[in-house]
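Before the break, one more example. Copy the sequence into your notebook; we will annotate it together after we see the structure.
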Amino acid sequence: MKHISDLHYKSRKLNGNYVYDKAIILTGIELQCKGTLIQKIKIPVNTTIEKHYHKYVRELFYIVEGKGNIIINDNKIKAKKDVMIFVEPKDWHSIETKNKSLTILIFKTNVVEGDIHYDNKYKRISIDYDDTLVEGMKSTKGKALKGAVEFTNKLKKDGWEIIISTCRPDWQVVEIRENLEKQGFKFDMILPYTKPKAKYYIDDRAIKFNGNFDKIYKELK
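Here is what the structure looks like once it is written out:
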């Protein structure tokens, strides 16, 4: 018998970005079944676990509490308490939350180290929010700059993953999301405080590095 009470959570990163907290409950050693795993994850509000698949792993998701969406092969399933979802190998899946966090108990079989594969790994673009997509920094509800909506929506149509990056605090993410959606922007996620891993970065304050620090120093003057 093993009484499991205190779970120890660790921050989990995908492609270098913080996404959720994870606690391992039982491994294949305790279960005496190689390749099995039971874990619990806590996904905060306004978070997206990006689209990915596994070649071998099978997963059973049991929603403990909270609300969100789980997208399996482009089919959106509402995640809420007591819902169970079975994810098979090569099923593309992602998870998203908005104004509610989500806690999921996950049962895994056929676990293989490194068996996680992403979509659009090299077609990700990070775009700054203030004075790049919308006007000014005085408010989170800035008006879209000319051509910004059309530009981002064209990128989405071309298959780019769009991440809105901002130095604004996380508690303003909801207002930013509402402002962008109201004006017709299409995007995948909003990341406060940090710069995500991406192929390109668009920012009104950026200076392109070409290996010449003297040239950059002159630009800063």
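The radius of gyration is 20 Å. The first strand starts at residue 10 and ends at 14. Try to locate both features in your own notes.
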